[in-house]
Amino acid sequence: MPVPVKLENLHKRYGRVQALDGVSLSAREGEVLGLLGHNGAGKTTIMKLVLGLTRPDSGRVEVLGRDPCGRDVRRLRHRLGYLPESVVFYGELTGREVLRYFARLKGIGRGASEPLLERLGLAQAADRPVKGYSNGMRQRLGLAQALLGEPALLLLDEPTAGLDPDATRDVYSMLDELRRRGATVMLSSHVLAGIERHIDRAAIIGAGRLLVSGNLEELGRRAGLGVTIRAGGDWADEKRVDRVIERGAVVHRRSATELELRVPGAAKLDVLRVLLAVDGIRDVAVEPPSLEMLYDHFGPSTRPAEAPCTAS
Ligand SMILES: Nc1ncnc2c1ncn2[C@@H]1O[C@H](COP(=O)(O)OP(=O)(O)OP(=O)(O)O)[C@@H](O)[C@H]1O
């Protein structure tokens, strides 16, 4: 079984802009890979290269074992689903008509639209013109068209851009469902908050370069950022707090009933033991570094020598 996406040393220039500068990256079967980076980092360019919508100046692109710009790309494209960053539909058509139109373009029977309308919660609105849809509904329709034909690889470019918190949650819960079904997904985002629970690996892109990639646990270990421990209890007594500080914890936030600590990985168990022995401890939660913390560490301001690239 070929690796779904294999990118080797990609360079791509648009006029004077070096959009990609030696990116090597893979998406593995059945994983959700998050392409994360600032505006203009090169995320969409990577997606366009995977889709065969543009060619690299140099380097190699292999998608499901094929060159997406090679011969017989029609068969390959039928196995890909794509949700572009700004999805636009012809507003006079109904949701059902839009989906049937895309199904015809993909050479799929019109029957394929019905289960997708149902699955994406659009069945009730299927006969309404799309111009009356909310942003969230449009995005769900965009996802439905990307899912037509059960693609082997899904590319979602900023799928939550411009959505309110409810619609964002909807998109993520659909993503989780795809993940449970074993889909391979490449998802780009410049918004980091809340995305970590929905991806298996992150690739942080900055100014056309892959700064780092890996699963969040790995990245947390490499960054040496330790963990955050939140402990609910009675923290009015200074001595109780001093005991965890002695074990290497740094107090990040504190009230009489809540304590938030940053703890180096090596000190985690020691600090937990101390906390659990405290009288009146109510609750303890251990959290790995957030994506924002990892991005701050590995992100574009970090010199490449401090953040080695991995071509995984
Ligand atoms: N067709 C084009 N013509 C000229 N420059 C382009 C073109 N497409 C992309 N660029 C430039 O290449 C760089 C990378 O763009 P790209 O769209 O890949 O970034 P991105 O990470 O997807 O950004 P965003 O988060 O804003 O969507 C940017 O500087 C962009 O302006």
From TrEMBL:
Gene3D superfamilies: P-loop containing nucleotide triphosphate hydrolases (3.40.50.300). The keyword Acetylation does not apply. GO terms for molecular function: ATP binding; ATP hydrolysis activity. SMART domains: AAA (SM00382). It comes from the Bacteria. Residues 5-232 form the ABC transporter domain. Keywords: ATP-binding, Nucleotide-binding, Transport. Coiled coil: none annotated. Pfam families: ABC_tran (PF00005). PANTHER family: ABC TRANSPORTER ATP-BINDING PROTEIN ALBC-RELATED. This is Cu-processing system ATP-binding protein.
